Amino acid sequence: MASATPNPEHNTFPKLLRAWADKTPDKIALREKDFGIWHDLTWAEYRTRVAELTVALSSRGFGKGDVIGLIGNNEIWWACAELAAQAAGCMSMGIYRDTLEEEVGYLATYTDVSAVFAEDQEQVDKFLNLSDQLPNLRLIFYSEPRGLRDPEDARIMDIRKLCEEGRSILAETPHRFDQLIDAIPGHDVAILCTTSGTTSNPKLAMLTAERVIDHVVRYLEVDPKTPEDEYVSILPFPWIMEQVYALGFNLVSGMTVNFPESQETAMEDLREIGPTFMLGAPRLWEQIAADMRARIMDASILNQWIFNTLIKRGMDAIDRGQRDTLADTLLFSALRDRLGFSRVHSAATGGAALGPDTFKLFLAMGIPLRQLYGQTELMGAYTLQQPPGAEADYDTVGIPFRGSEVKIEEPDQNGVGEIITRHPNMFVGYYKNQQVYDADIRDGWMHTGDAGYFDDAGRLTVIDRMKDIAVKADGSKFSPQYIENKLKFSPFIGETVVLGAGRDYLTSIVCIRFSIVSKWAEKRRIPYTSYTNLAANPQVYELIRSEVERVNETLVEGQRIEKFLLLFKELDADDGELTRTKKLRRTLINERYQQVINALYSEATVAHIDTEVTYEDGRKGRIQADMEIRSIATHS
């Protein structure tokens, strides 16, 4: 069953779990680090935990039609709780751990959640504060007791006590778990998965278990996994791709999934495991690349020169479809080892476009990185680049999986149009939102809203969102995302918004990468007190100006940045400027920073802002700031 199609009877996640527990009971299914120690969970132990939770939930009256929410860090208990919810006949709904109480309230009331797995005190408190809005919420169970006092609310309990309840039930009715999962058909909705929500509140895509499983099988045909593979789960569980990888791949291929101790220790924990394959959102790969370049700042001038020379040699070789042996021997092999990538034989990036320079860097390093493409509604990914070979490919997202059809609707003279897709395992609707489903799905095709084209080799290239393809005042088109990704290859630039629709020239709002710019400033003994203070420093402005100029040299005339400013703060999902998967919400940014944008397109040398911000504890406040506007000569 390792990488072949599962038995048709194994059409839900719990049934697959039972099959692996029967076949390889003592093999490690999941591994988790806690207090610096790795703890293993075998397939047999995994089934036992899920069985206990399932029968406990069922005995408490949870079943078909109920929605069980899950919020917290990626951990073993989350995986157990999600499978138990589905085994009891409920629908599981993941919520990003950093979601503010207001957003949690929207999702919880919209779905009328019946129960929730809330990892710790922070997450439990969110639901306690929302109690008045959630009349159907009957159970809040947690895995981390630290900070939680003995709750007076009878609905709150430790997940281990819930397991004890189930253990007692199974002692009297040992076949109860099997009876429950055998009664759940694969065509029932198992997962409510939030969409990105770049323009509004997220929608909830309804996914059936049998469709998720069949799609995972098709994915594994182009990127095979076996029980010997090791994966480190870093990306948030509510994201569709982590559902596919950390649950789907695990349960279909039998690979081992590892959960880091925390987000802060994730890269260190990854080095300890030495995974065989990796999935990373573009921001993860960008951060790794930036951190590498930041570390070399501490080296001597000679070592910096050697590092930069070998990086260039490696990337130039990739452009020729080759690997540079000297660069690999002297630099890249050591980098792979330091990052924990020595055993990686498969790596993927998705969720948004990855800048070609960042992509080339990892290929040069010997990381077999491939871009994938898809949407939540279509099981996360349905195209994947071919394995790196003689022909360099860092612009396309590859070719579709078996059974997936992709077309370009109403292409222009260059073949560019809207990407539309259909395949046998699409979502079955939006939860409580048939109207939007009917608008997005026409004649069985999902209208993605993305612009793209096929190259001569039949590979799909995604340019940008259709609505984000911008047209300047002279009628020329440009992709803000493409330019933004090139700018973010700089280790000093964390985020940027490229502007210019309906204007005579392009400008950019830039957010510095504070962790690296602060280090750069300290080495030069540049004083600062905060992000805002550092971003306003004239020397930092000069640093970023030189980075923008470097990128401008790689852009065609008319698509170069002519003015920029450094924003007084980082763009933040809590302020609604980014989605929880870190995509730009351009409409909101354009509205919130209209004063700033107007200043960039005037003769002003300073932009003033007066806006509302959200602090880490959820409180809101107003902030005023003045930001210098810098001009850049762009003509040859």
Query: How large a portion of the residues is in β-strands, by DSSP E?
Result: 15-25%
Please state how the strands of the largest beta sheet are arranged side by side.
7-6-5-3-4-8-9
Named at the architecture level, the CATH assignment of the largest domain is 3-Layer(aba) Sandwich
Rg over CA atoms, rounded to whole Å, is 25 Å
Classify the helix fraction into a percent range. 25-40%
Determine the CATH topology of the largest domain.
Answer: Rossmann fold
Relevant CATH superfamily of the largest domain: ANL, N-terminal domain
As residue ranges, the low-confidence spans are none
The biggest sheet, with number of strands, parallel, antiparallel or mixed sense and barrel status, is: 7 strands, mixed
Name some characteristics of this structure.
single chain, 636 residues, alpha/beta, Rossmann fold, GMP Synthetase, Chain A, domain 3, five-stranded mixed sheet, globular
Question: Can you walk me through this structure?
Answer:
The chain is of the alpha/beta class and 636 residues long. The chain has three domains: 13-210, 3-Layer(aba) Sandwich (Rossmann fold), CATH 3.40.50; 270-466, 3-Layer(aba) Sandwich (Rossmann fold), CATH 3.40.50; 470-631, ANL, C-terminal domain (GMP Synthetase, Chain A, domain 3, 2-Layer Sandwich). It contains 21 helices and 28 strands. The strands form six sheets. A seven-stranded mixed sheet has the order 7-6-5-3-4-8-9, sandwiched between helices. A five-stranded mixed sheet has the order 12-13-14-15-16. Strands 17, 18, 19, 20 and 21 form a five-stranded antiparallel sheet that branches. Helix 1 (13-23) runs parallel beside helix 9, helix 12 (301-319) packs across helix 13 and helix 12 (301-319) crosses helix 14 (356-364). The model has no long low-confidence stretch (mean pLDDT 91).
